[in-house]
Design brief:
This protein is of the alpha+beta class and 469 residues long. Helix content is 18%, strand content 35%. It has nine helices and 27 strands. Strands 21, 22, 23, 24, 25, 26 and 27 form a seven-stranded antiparallel beta sheet that branches. It is flat and about 80 Å long. The relative contact order is 0.10.
Length: 469
């Protein structure tokens, strides 16, 4: 009987697959093609060798209209810098927001748009059309029915040299990932305007979007190396539905940021549990606590094992499992979280008031002097951690050095920590501004810079040319 049942199920599956392969998608494409648009914008080119950004480059992305007020969802690559301090970033990313944004509609009409904001975790961003006209959005379905082997249709655009024409491609779900949230992988072997696109399921309903894999290879210049061999990720509507309803808004330092605990951590493995004589103990081991962080204020300690959050058990046996914990903290409904902590062979409860993650270096204020030929930024947590500085380190760091300028000739380098100018201690940008004003007024022949580079401090002597001016 079991053998017959298996044969019947196999036949039904084959018939279903045959029907899916022969499915006519034309009506579904017609219903959704005008909701998938081309975004054109300019990205400011940032150079660490000039204090003024002089160049910009035109870029293109696919976008999806997601509400009738002209809100468009797209890839966060429209503005590459991370707003959170936890993501390592190269210096060459632009500090400036995308400019001259316009959207090419399906009828060929161009409508100007403005950048709204982005979510670094989901790698998604939003722009809004500058129009009062009501525009029909995509109507996503929450019933996706996707599983391993399912067929999907992806709507995006061809590269610019094909005039960014609409492109549809049928794909099969090759893998299903469950952590830190469910997403699906499919083959990505066709060059396109971007990896961002609209996904239709076998019922021909929009159920999600595609984006590049989080582990996509990058070239030495920081751009995606789209050689056609990296998989695409499909994330479902339920994963970004709340973002559409309440889009993130970019306000530089006032931008609302993710919830933050303020620790570095590692998996608490079975071997560690055995060492403590707690074979059944699972959790997350705290190995670093940031100064003035929510974790420090609540009394968490290095060596604590977080075993539960709000009564839900925590488990991490490898590094990949930690991302699920980060997601839970970032998306925690309340600002208050209660952890069950294993400390010195005892269990205790620790209540933490979660704060906002510190700003990244890209949101930090910058001060430039064309006269001396360098720019500096206030210290942020990501720079302090990257340079392995003490948490209470004061000063500013050199963010740009004008090639062949006075500072460059003196040997100043990007990344140097600027501690003093002419024996005047620099603890913040305001101190630096006062020094610049005094130098401009006094016009000294030499300027001394006391810096920290790596683990060593040194003096640099900058020769001016005021007398020749």
């Amino acid at each position: 009987m079991k053998h017959i049942t298996w044969i019947v199920l196999t036949i039904l599956f084959l018939l279903y697959s045959l029907q899916a392969n022969n499915m006519d998608w034309s009506e579904a494409i017609k219903d959704n093609m005008d909701k998938v648009v081309v975004i054109e914008y300019y990205e400011q080119l940032n150079s660490i060798e000039t204090i003024i950004d002089k160049g910009r480059i035109k870029r293109y992305l696919t976008g999806i209209i997601v509400d009738d007020n002209g809100l468009i969802l797209t890839s966060s690559s429209i503005f590459k810098p991370s707003l959170e301090f936890s993501t390592p970033q190269p210096f060459y990313n632009s500090y400036q927001l995308p400019s001259a944004i316009r959207v090419k509609m399906s009828n060929g009409q161009y409508i100007p748009a403005q950048f709204i904001g982005k979510d670094d975790d989901k790698r998604l961003a939003f722009i809004r059309l500058k129009t009062k006209e009501r525009i029909e959005p995509v109507k996503f379905s929450t019933r996706h029915s996707l599983r391993l082997g399912s067929s999907v249709l992806i709507i995006r655009h061809l590269p610019k040299h094909y005039d960014s024409e609409l492109m549809v491609s049928k794909r099969m779900i090759n893998a299903v990932l469950k952590q830190p949230f469910q997403r699906f992988l499919c083959e990505n072997n066709i060059n396109s305007l971007s990896d961002f696109g609209l996904v239709l399921n076998q019922q021909q309903k929009p159920v999600g979007i595609t984006r590049s894999s989080a582990y996509a290879r990058t070239s030495s210049f920081g751009f995606e190396d789209n050689d056609g061999y990296e998989p695409m990720e499909i994330i479902l509507y339920e994963q970004f539905k709340n973002l559409i309803q309440n889009p993130p808004v970019f306000k530089k330092k006032e931008t609302k940021r993710i919830k933050w605990l303020g620790i570095y951590m590692q998996p608490f493995t079975l071997k560690m549990a055995a060492y403590f004589g707690q074979d059944s103990l699972t959790g997350i081991l705290v190995n670093t606590i940031f100064d003035k962080s929510p974790a420090q204020k609540a009394g968490l300690q290095i060596g604590d094992v977080l075993t539960a959050l709000d009564g839900k058990a925590l488990k991490a046996e490898e590094d990949a499992d930690l991302e699920e914990f980060r997601r839970i903290v970032r998306e925690h409904d309340s600002d208050v979280a209660t952890f069950k902590v294993f400390r010195k062979n005892h269990f205790i409860d620790v209540t933490v008031t979660l704060g906002e993650a510190p700003i990244s270096a890209y949101l930090a204020d910058e001060l430039s002097t064309a006269l001396l030929g360098f720019s500096a930024k206030e210290l942020t947590q990501d720079i302090i951690i990257a340079k392995q500085l003490e948490y209470d380190t004061e000063g500013v760091w050199v963010s740009r050095v004008e090639r062949a300028g006075w500072a460059d000739v003196a040997g100043l380098q990007v990344g140097d920590l600027l501690l003093k100018i002419n024996e005047k201690k620099i603890t913040a940008l305001n101190d630096l501004k006062n020094c610049f004003e005094k130098i401009k007024q006094d016009k000294p022949e030499y300027i001394s810079l006391f810096i920290k580079r790596g683990s060593e401090t040194q003096f640099l002597f900058l020769k001016t040319n005021f007398r020749k001016q």
